[in-house]
């Protein structure tokens, strides 16, 4: 068949592809005899056969053809693959192009290296079967499916010359995240962003079932992608020669179309949303693999999804099929007697930095430019008398973030992300500097929408998280604000990102990337109006389970501490930073210098609030803005009710300060912990989240038995702010009572206090039922110095 | 304009709609003066204005028109709404049709009732603003967006006569779960399942932004839904009279089309996937609300999304607009002097059980038929010598589940759900009885796919979870199996379901529904081959945070205990049951009668495995199958190393047994706990998940300081099964060493043991590096009786 490839080109491309397939099969099956220099025996075969062959020949096919485009156009391409367990193909290709050996010099480009390459794959202390951090050129593991396309879109933001071909598996395409992520094309500026080239790889099967998109009518499939706003191209076939010509042809067309779109947009300064091209590539599952095994069809069926031959070690028939299969790639034509890839074939790969295995964006830390940060002290609120001024902490932060945006407009390496909640979380000041990204239709009433906008808003936590991950992994910075309860939607994406960071840190060639910064606002205590479904502080627990050297959790008690924490987080690398802070009006407790000191300690006694003189009867501890407020109010109640009681107020900003030092690097040593919390005095602890987290972190502290934690105990509804604390026994009255009950010095006031505080809580309940808002004595309460 | 409605019908429908809108606005704003019998004053207005008006007139519009269809055809319809905070509309309509008052008799259908109806809305101790359990006719809260369409599809499974019109908000449509859920139509059998009528309600805005689907070209939108496999109808407009005629017309068409599809399929016995109709309804945001406020356009813009007038209490101008707005619905024409809805208008609603507020499926517990369960003892494995037989626990369970399926085929009230993992989790025996649901194209090589299949498989945890929730909430039973790590994908959906159950339990009229049963297999310890991304046991922690009377967590140590636990869970109601069990070959420890006893206790000493004679030197505790295996192996090591050591083996099946009784109803009382774990002896605890969970549950037990927990500490990769335990210090050698180190009686062996066990771990490491599999002494280890 005629096509753009000369006979010689076609032959070389096919040979290159065969080499990649050979190396892929070798990785899955062989631990020895990599060049088949002797007949294959049981001893050459790995004891466990891992990796998915089904998707791999297709991934290899795309790789070699992208190489041709890169060569012909010196294109800047990073290759993302969604299909799970597809690493054999990427490892094979980066080995062939030489980038693998540059990063892992012990995997030489010869027989020994090939043997090691095969053996290490899915081998203990070797490399995983996914496109994990260990794999050159990867930013998207694909172990958990669904995020490849989001990573691709995140990567091309602000990278106008980058093209990211992204293979979406037809299994992965069924996931929620992936189904929504096709709409990312409405958030791409063709002038200033790069291009994603989605390649839907239809090979028909997932682990045990056909895929939905492979089994709908072709006209439905085409409609679907037109509906998503793409111009779909379709390529289907199984004859390699024919497919090489047609793939070369369609990739020429797709590349030209991307160039045409970008040229038009850039020359005419016309960012109107183009219909970006995408490719539907339909090839057989396990293409080039065994056609029939044990009388059952394999190639092109679900049986080829994982390992087409499973009993190679024990079934001589299978071993023979494997040998024939490997020989079908004609390794002698591909590798010389030393096992080195033949020069004339290696030569068709791109050279140097153009190789996809070392595309600079795929190791984004190399490109990381620190943010230019405004002095956060300039945004400080002067508290006057502590607690006398009410501000929205996140609104104050919004002013700071506006200027972070401003200072980094030139380098274009900072974006904010929110699921339709940026303004709701009070970060709207940024719009004075940059709008919200939008390349769909505009109406005259729209505000702050712009194709140049650097605030990414869409009603999907998945999209925000995925774009941000792609943006960070390619060496930029970001800030994600979200309602606290709904961040659970991306629990699993967070897991995968935290795991990526942990593994990447262990690889010397992976350079550190900017931290993933979460601001959770509209939090559990102030979702009183939105009701129970909006009340969930469990993300802290979720984060706390991850590797200690990867995660940080901050609960700044007021606006000034929030500023200090945010500045710190934006400077950090290779962490996930979780910040929780309210958006409603709330007291400012510390002046800026005290705030900075407090945040750099992470935990500390507020001597100005207590009266313990170094020897408290009770420690009133708190973490989080509402818990701090209730604790401070409890302290004033204690003054009235038990003036003789010596109270220490301890505030925790950095939650991991509570953990033992061997559990988390931020943990207080025993001495400091005991100095702060005493070894024998009652500690009444008001905590933002579920109380058990505090117990989990402090269970082996000397004074643990005396720590009484109050926090969210899953009681909520539509009610008032103060009632939320009452429902969960974290209100000032309960805290004060707890102090009185547990302190020897105040115990004589216990019965009185119990009766009185119970009356107040009753009165509160009647008042809110009657008036629909909090009692003035609670709503207008102000801290007074002693 | 001509149409199906006579002038009189049109007038009544419009009046009914105005009444619903009036009541909706009243709920949002008024706490008094419900009939506007005197001029509106500040005192009539609620202090906090909650609920979203933007979506509500559209929801009401659809409701009144669905009523007409129900009346005309005696249709069996349940109304699901996705848009957030849409409850005012549903409450208004159920009040008008009378179902609200039947369920809440204090909300009478007169002036007083209306006042209470208004006042209670979003009022402390009142009702939430979402379509929460409190709202009649609801099974889908919509507080967290994205699940309405899945609930709708789950509801119509096996309910051939049920039609579920489901309003999808255009904000919600951007979420991952919703974007994927349109494909649910490939899993519906037109003969035996009912019909979902999706209504995409395009009113253009979410909280602070336009919506994507409202801002793409109409031809893209149409393509998108054709691509999803629907036949889209579009209705757009804002003139009420015109819209009433056209809505009546299009609903007549849609209803006829559903009838035609079902009649064809049922008469011809032809389940070929039809192109189900769906409606795109484009109406202004805040339709019928204020057009302009403070000189800015409101109706039809994002300003109408929540509360179009925010300063009603403080801005007399706003108060006037509100009053005029309320009067625009002409309440005098709608309600008589007593505030009772006028008879001739009320009359157009359906009667009795046809009313959507009391559709029997929306309170599914009413329909719940207990499962017919086979005797689980019939599937017992005879263990012979404990631990001598290796079986796949989930495979054994699969036999039982096959017969659960078989016994309930006639009642069609049991389905299994899995994200492409049913067979991978070894539950494939069910296919002998029922295949996998599939109404897309079939190929000759397909196996076990059938349009009648009762196993729901799709590569989306969101879809599985959402369908199952819909199925359970409408009174049926289900079983969800999933890889342990990836269940986090639906963390947030689990949250919302657990919250639903908790709130529904507090409503006497909501009847209990079947529990949501999770089986997590392919768990952290046996994902050695799949690598780090597949290794995460954190879902236990996530579940443990929920309300104690709603959640249960089971870690059966072997096949027989798994059978017993599964039987128990399938009989239970109103819980979420989490079961974690391995699929790989593993020992059977208990004969069936011991298993039943052990499971009914939930925790217990295995006297046959220990030698403590009632007074142990050390307690070796374990929870989970792999931890049990390692503990048993550690016990045999101890026998050799410290024969004099008196060892007690405690196994935990029911994790909440560890919690204090005031924390969880299953918790052991102090006496029993102390009897089992002693008050002063070391406890070496091997736990399936993160070790901190055990500390969190036991921190205030007397012996807590002596409990040393080993579990997953976020160390993983592609390796061998035993190496996973070594990496995380939960291997038999580490457990045995910990016992020796902490027991006074064995302490003299400490140095020896340290050296020797460290050597073994080294040898292990070398062995797996060399051979790629576990040492035979580990892999072939068998328990031997003392």
UniProtKB/TrEMBL annotation, chains A, B:
PANTHER family recorded: PHOSPHOKETOLASE-RELATED (PTHR31273)
EC number: 4.1.2.-
Protein name, as recorded: Probable phosphoketolase
Class of enzymatic activity (EC top level): lyase
Location of the Xylulose 5-phosphate/Fructose 6-phosphate phosphoketolase N-terminal domain: 5-366
Family the entry assigns: Belongs to the XFP family.
Species of origin: Corallococcus exercitus
A GO BP entry: carbohydrate metabolic process
Keyword Lyase: yes
Ranges of residues in domain Xylulose 5-phosphate/Fructose 6-phosphate phosphoketolase C-terminal: 583-783
One family name in Pfam for this protein: XFP_N
The protein's required cofactors: thiamine diphosphate
UniProt GO MF annotations: aldehyde-lyase activity
Alphabetic keyword roster: Lyase, Thiamine pyrophosphate
């Amino acid at each position: 068949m005629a096509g753009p490839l000369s006979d010689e080109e076609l032959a070389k491309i096919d040979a290159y592809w065969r080499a990649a397939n050979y190396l892929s099969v070798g990785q899955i099956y062989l631990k020895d005899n990599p060049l088949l220099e002797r007949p294959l025996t049981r001893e050459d075969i790995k004891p466990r056969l891992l990796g998915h062959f089904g998707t791999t020949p297709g991934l290899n096919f795309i790789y070699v053809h992208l190489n041709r485009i890169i060569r012909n156009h010196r294109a800047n391409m990073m290759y993302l693959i969604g299909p799970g367990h597809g690493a054999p193909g990427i490892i094979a290709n980066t080995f062939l192009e030489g980038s693998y050996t540059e990063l892992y010099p012990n995997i030489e480009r010869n027989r020994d290296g090939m043997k090691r390459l095969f053996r290490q794959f899915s081998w203990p202390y070797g490399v995983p079967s996914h496109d994990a951090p260990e794999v050159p050129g990867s930013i998207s593991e694909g172990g958990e499916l669904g995020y490849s396309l989001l990573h691709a879109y995140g990567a091309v933001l602000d990278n106008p010359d980058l093209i990211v071909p992204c293979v979406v598996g037809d299994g992965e395409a069924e996931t929620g995240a992936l189904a929504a992520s096709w709409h990312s094309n409405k958030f791409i500026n063709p002038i200033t962003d790069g291009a994603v080239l989605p390649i839907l790889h239809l090979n028909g099967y997932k682990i045990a079932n056909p895929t939905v998109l492979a089994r709908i009518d072709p006209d439905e499939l085409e409609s679907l992608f037109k509906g998503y706003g793409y111009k779909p191209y379709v390529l289907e076939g199984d004859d390699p020669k024919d497919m090489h010509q047609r793939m070369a042809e369609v990739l020429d067309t797709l590349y030209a179309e991307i160039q045409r779109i970008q040229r038009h947009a850039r020359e005419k300064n016309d960012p109107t949303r183009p219909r970006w091209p995408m490719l539907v590539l339909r090839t057989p599952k396990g293409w080039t693999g065994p056609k029939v095994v044990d009388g059952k069809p394999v190639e092109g069926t679900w049986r080829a999804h994982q390992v087409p031959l499973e009993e190679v070690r024990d079934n001589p028939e299978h071993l023979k099929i494997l040998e024939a299969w490997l020989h079908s790639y004609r390794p002698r034509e591909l590798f010389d007697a030393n096992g080195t890839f033949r020069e004339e074939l290696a030569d068709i790969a791109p050279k140097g930095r153009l190789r996809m295995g070392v595309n600079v964006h795929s190791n984004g830390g190399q490109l990381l430019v620190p943010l230019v940060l405004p002095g956060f002290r300039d945004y400080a609120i002067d508290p006057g008398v502590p607690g006398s001024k009410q501000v929205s902490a996140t609104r104050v932060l919004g002013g700071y973030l506006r200027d972070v945006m401003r200072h980094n407009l030139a380098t274009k390496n900072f974006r904010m992300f929110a699921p339709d909640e940026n303004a709701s979380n009070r970060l709207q000041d940024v719009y004075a500097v940059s709008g919200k990204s939008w390349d769909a239709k505009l109406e005259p009433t729209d505000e702050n929408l712009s194709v140049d906008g650097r605030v990414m808003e869409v009603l999907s936590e998945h999209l925000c998280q995925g774009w941000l991950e792609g943006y960070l992994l390619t060496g930029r910075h970001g800030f994600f604000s979200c309602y606290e309860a709904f961040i659970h939607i991306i629990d699993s994406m967070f897991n995968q990102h935290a795991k990526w960071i942990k593994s990447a840190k262990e690889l010397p060639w992976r350079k550190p990337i900017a931290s993933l910064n979460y601001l959770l606002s509209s939090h559990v205590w102030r979702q009183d109006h939105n009701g129970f479904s909006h009340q969930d502080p469990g993300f802290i627990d979720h984060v706390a389970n991850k590797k200690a050297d990867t995660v940080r959790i901050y609960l700044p008690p007021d606006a000034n501490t929030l500023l200090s924490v945010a500045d710190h987080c934006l400077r950090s690398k290779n962490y996930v930073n979780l910040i929780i802070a309210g958006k409603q009006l709330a007291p400012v407790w510390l002046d800026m210098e005290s705030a900075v000191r407090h945040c750099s300690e992470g935990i500390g006694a507020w001597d100005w609030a207590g009266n313990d003189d170094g020897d408290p009867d009770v420690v009133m501890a708190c973490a989080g803005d509402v818990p701090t407020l209730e604790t401070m109010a409890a302290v004033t109640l204690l003054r009235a009710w038990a003036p003789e009681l010596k109270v220490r107020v301890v505030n925790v900003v950095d939650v991991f300060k509570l953990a033992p030092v061997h559990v988390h690097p931020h943990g207080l040593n025993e001495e400091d912990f005991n100095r702060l919390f005493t070894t024998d005095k009652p500690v009444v602890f008001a905590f933002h989240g579920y109380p058990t987290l505090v117990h989990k972190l402090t269970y082996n502290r000397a004074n643990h038995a005396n720590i009484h934690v109050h926090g969210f105990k899953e009681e909520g509804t539509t009610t008032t702010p103060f009632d939320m604390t009452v429902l969960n026994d974290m209100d000032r009255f309960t805290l004060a009572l707890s102090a009185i009950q547990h302190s020897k010095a105040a115990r004589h006031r216990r019965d009185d206090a119990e009766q009185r505080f119970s009356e107040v809580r009753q009165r509160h309940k009647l008042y809110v039922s009657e008036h629909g808002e909090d009692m003035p004595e609670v709503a207008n309460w102000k801290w007074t110095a002693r």
